[in-house]
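Exercise 7. Given the components listed, write out the predicted structure of the assembled complex. Treat all entries as one system.
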Amino acid sequence: MKINIKNLTKFYGIQKVLEDINITIENINVLGIIGESGCGKSTLIKQLSGLEFSDKGKIIINDLDISRQNIIEYQKKIGFVFQNHNLFPHLTIKENIMLVLEKSKGFSIENSEEITIKLLKRFFLEEEKDKKPNEISGGQAQRASIARALAGNPDLIFLDEPTASLDPLLTKEVLGSIEILKKLGTEFIFITHEMDFLKKFADYFIFLDAGKIVEHGYINKLEDSKNIKLKSFIKNINI
Amino acid sequence: MWKNLNKIVAYILTCYIFLQIILNANENSDYGLILKEIPRLLNGLGVTLTISFITFFISLISGFIFYILMRSKNIFLNTFIKIIKEIILGTPLIVMIFLVVYVLGMKINITGKLLLGILALSFYMTPYMANSYETASAVIGKDQKIIMTLYNFDFYTRYRYIIIPQMIKPLIPSLINNLSSIIKGTALLKIVSVKEISYVITVISNRNCAAIEGYMIMWVMYLSITIPLSLLANKIGRRYNFEN
Amino acid sequence: MSRKIKCIVFIGLFLSLNLLFTGCRKENKTKDIIRVGIDLKYPPFMYINNEGKPSGLEVDLAYAFGKYLGKKVEIINTDFTMLVASLESGETDILISDMSVSEERKRKMSFSKGYRYGKTMALVNKKFYREKNISEKMSSEEFFKLEGMKCIGLSGTIGIEIPNRYGREVTEATEIGMAIGEITKGRSNVMLGNYAVIGNYLANKETTDIYLGIKDYSISCFVVRKGNEKLLDKANKFIEGLYEKGGLYEQLEIKYDKIIKAYFKNKKMGFKYIVEKPE
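Answer.
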């Protein structure tokens, strides 16, 4: 993927959440965004996925300017996995995925069903297909959410702390599913606190602090960084 | 065992109090003066029920339209509807009936009081219905809205598959409440001589100088509709809970 | 122990509620006060003056009756439709509110001798009045035979009874305001009532007219609860006294004659017009 951000600024009311973000990255598959709580990572990922508009600046992803336009076209080819699975609570996980395929991606009912079953199988959820999100475990729900994000074969998937609300066992389960996807060639932009996963999965990282990019680089540079804030962050996480 | 005994005692006590009020409201009560006109009373009951249900269905729809308009992105529509809502909510039903029958009715040249009465009651109830939808839709969290935006669901898909199915359960008690308000509201239509329960009883009791007996019977008649309705609502509410 | 206390509290509540509904009223024995129910919405006969005090013919009669009985008078302003209820419940002891006697009413209450007589008038929609060439020369029978007549009347009054007697159907209205609206707008064209109808006509001269040819008249009396023979007896004696030479009516005529003529806007309708029995 190719990411080009120029002078990106975002306010929530009078509070400046992102300040003058400038970065150009090319030829990577997986980007990891890290930082303390409140540093603006969730906001950044929302700007990058088109869920929110910036107040100033430009965002160009894969040569498409999504600063304040082209959003619908862009969102047709992306997927998003939230910290809380965000599945529709009144529908079964099968219905959740089929609805997206039918109404958003334009597949027929038969095709939707076929694709959905395949997706559920891949994530070992076939037996739970007729269950509602509150009838399955958090890990299963999150896997279902990832399956939904894959509906329609997106080129780029965003994950906003996908395992933050899961216990270590379920975390492992979900991260395992995500790793499988990398092999399929899908590209990712994600936020996480799981450092091991970050090191294994990401090609490139961005470290944010108080709305600014303080450090960024290829993943092998993470440990060697001389940046005080980043070092302190890693140390705290690993405790 | 104690639980049932307590329940039974509660029932008996309230029935006793109720009967005491009715039988002692008046010395020399002569309920026969009113009860001899049972056919007319039953007729009035029928009219009340008919008006109530027609009004209920009209306001269900108009309330929904109001609700959608209240959330419109168009600032003009949005503001316009909100002001209208405040005006209607602040208008007492008795005034609304007058406005619709004597002001609107004259302008659009309709004289049928039954029709105008239903119209007045429907106008009156529209914002209450809209508020019911509004409260019920709070069930849909922000998260779901984000997903619907992300996947670019159109209006029909949003409402038909996501919003309305989830709104139904919290909506039902609210709607039943509104229906109860409508039923009690029909009592005011007597001022335009619509032959519902309160009009029929007022006329009969005026003829026989039996105002107190009239009001007691009116009380019983309205309760005979609203109490079963409430029980029905509870039953439906329980069934929905089991399904989930 | 606490369960026993609960039971006692319960039973206590129960008994006191019982008393509330059955016992209370028997306490209301009139001592030195007589409570008179009047509907104070009809100037110049029964109304509230600029100082907020009850005034008018009926009010004067009420105070005079109190004096006659040797009791203080408390006037209870009550809407016409609730007068009977107030009498039955004991809130009032007697009604002096231009209430006319009828067979249905006699079943529930006792009426004294007549102290006022009311001619029946009809408020007629002006267009209908002109179309049918209505005038005082027309007899009641002819009047009620008019084609296309749509009668409306206030529920429970002569507005319903009299047209029915002449064989006409009447729409019953529960609100006088709405009924008058129907006449002025032409949706109904005839409304019968007592003298108060004149006030409605004068307020709507462009759209209504008055027909005075109805022979039926009403007799207004003092009204007491059934069985209250003592009070009824006194009322009758009082009313007889009103008409006697030197009686109260002579003084009241001086006070009210001009006012009443001004009210009817007719020099022939003065005090005598309302207290004397029509021939």
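Discussion: The first helix of chain A runs from residue 41 to 49. The beta strands of chain A are 3-12, 15-25, 30-35, 56-61, 64-65, 78-81, 156-160, 187-191, 204-209, 212-218.
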